[in-house]
UniProtKB/TrEMBL annotation:
<dbReference type="InterPro" id="IPR000843">
    <property type="entry name" value="HTH_LacI"/>
</dbReference>
<keyword id="KW-0804">Transcription</keyword>
<dbReference type="Pfam" id="PF00356">
    <property type="entry name" value="LacI"/>
</dbReference>
<dbReference type="InterPro" id="IPR010982">
    <property type="entry name" value="Lambda_DNA-bd_dom_sf"/>
</dbReference>
<feature type="domain" description="HTH lacI-type">
    <location>
        <begin position="14"/>
        <end position="68"/>
    </location>
</feature>
<dbReference type="Pfam" id="PF13377">
    <property type="entry name" value="Peripla_BP_3"/>
</dbReference>
<dbReference type="InterPro" id="IPR046335">
    <property type="entry name" value="LacI/GalR-like_sensor"/>
</dbReference>
<dbReference type="GO" id="GO:0003700">
    <property type="term" value="F:DNA-binding transcription factor activity"/>
</dbReference>
<dbReference type="InterPro" id="IPR028082">
    <property type="entry name" value="Peripla_BP_I"/>
</dbReference>
<dbReference type="GO" id="GO:0000976">
    <property type="term" value="F:transcription cis-regulatory region binding"/>
</dbReference>
<protein>
    <submittedName>
        <fullName>LacI-family transcriptional regulator</fullName>
    </submittedName>
</protein>
<keyword id="KW-0805">Transcription regulation</keyword>
<keyword id="KW-0238">DNA-binding</keyword>
Length: 344
């Protein structure tokens, strides 16, 4: 029988004492090489780093964080990572955080207000240094009430917007107007807006507002708002019901995943896009451009939204630069899912 071997963490990790002995310096010098390198002569720092690299030494970041009163971790709260738009935002934030040796802890809410609050408390319990948040109904969010009580916790919104709260987003209302005007330019007079529950997505609510403004200004013959239980999945029976009587000639969806789900359902029903009905979305995810026909959509720079939010948060944490809001540009991606309406 082979003898059992118990290996401690200490034996798996070269200690600062060993590095000091091998480098011929004090443990304080090794500590300064990683924590306060500016206090050492360049040749001393380089010598210590060389010995550390040769022996696989890695400084204890957790211990350092506890001593400095900071975890060097940012919290990111998003509705889901299944939507490529939010995944790109997360990726953009990660890339910038890593440049400054910050880690990111992510939590998702699945568009549930209860989960949103629980996830926020989880991030706060892990003592993150700051937060990047995409909330549901941001104006009425319990999460915002909690953060206002946690006055020492810096945070910035991504996609969501609240007056007086720093954020990074497109102008969703303007984007809604731009997309509605684009669709109307193809002679569509009977337009619908499709979304999940508005109380769990302030983005969808603002986009609807922009579309509705255009519908009123152009005096469209008919405009309606269809609401689904889900923000990303269509239900076949509901779609059938909507199309059974005076169906719209164009449907603007609150996001691309919902638009692609709708297009799939319409194809199954034998309805041609855009010949029978025009479909468009929001976000500009890559899958929309791969679909046939290509999805007409509002493209927003999701990776930039995450990157800019992270940059602003880190600038506040490291240099005390006040957090401010930024509106990033959007653009219409024409695609091929919207065409000229021909009554038949």
């Amino acid at each position: 029988m082979l003898p059992s071997v118990v290996t401690s963490k200490a034996s798996l990790r070269t200690s600062i004492v060993e590095i000091a002995r091998k480098a011929g310096v004090s443990t304080a010098t090794v500590s300064r090489a990683f924590n306060r390198p500016e206090l050492l002569r360049p040749e001393t720092r380089q010598h210590v780093e060389k010995i550390a690299l040769e022996h696989g030494f890695r400084p204890n970041l957790v211990g350092r964080s506890l001593r400095q009163g900071a975890t060097r971790t940012l919290g990111v709260l998003l509705p889901t990572l299944n939507n490529p738009a939010f995944a790109e935002c997360f990726d953009g934030a990660c890339r910038d955080a890593q440049k400054l040796n910050y880690s990111i802890m992510v939590a998702t809410t699945d568009y549930c207000t209860k989960t949103e609050l629980e996830s926020l408390h989880m991030l706060l319990d892990h003592q993150v240094d700051g937060l990047i948040l995409t909330l549901g109904g941001a104006q009425e969010s319990e999460a915002i009430k909690v953060l206002r009580e946690e006055k020492a916790m810096p945070y910035i919104l991504a996609y969501s917007t609240i007056q007086g709260v720093p954020s990074v987003s497109i102008d969703d209302q303007l984007a809604g107007r731009d997309l509605a005007e684009y669709v109307a330019s193809f002679q569509h007079k009977n337009i619908a807006f499709l979304s999940g529950p508005l109380h769990t997505s302030d983005r969808a609510a603002r986009r609807l507002l922009g579309v509705r403004q255009v519908a009123r200004r152009l005096k469209l013959s008919r405009f309606c708002h269809y609401v689904l239980p889900s923000h990303t999945q269509c239900e076949p029976q509901l779609v059938k019901n909507w199309l059974s009587s005076n169906p719209p000639t164009a449907i603007i969806c609150s996001n691309d995943l919902l638009a692609l789900s709708l297009m799939s359902q319409l194809h199954a029903f034998g309805i041609r896009i855009p010949d029978d009905i025009a479909i468009c979305g929001f976000d500009g995810i890559v899958f929309g451009a791969m679909y046939t026909p290509q999805l007409t959509t509002v493209s927003q720079p999701s990776s930039d939204i995450g990157r800019i939010a992270c940059q602003k948060l880190l600038a506040y944490l490291k240099q005390h630069i006040p957090l401010t809001s930024t509106v990033v540009p959007h653009r219409i991606f024409p695609g091929a899912s919207v065409g000229v309406h021909s009554p038949h």
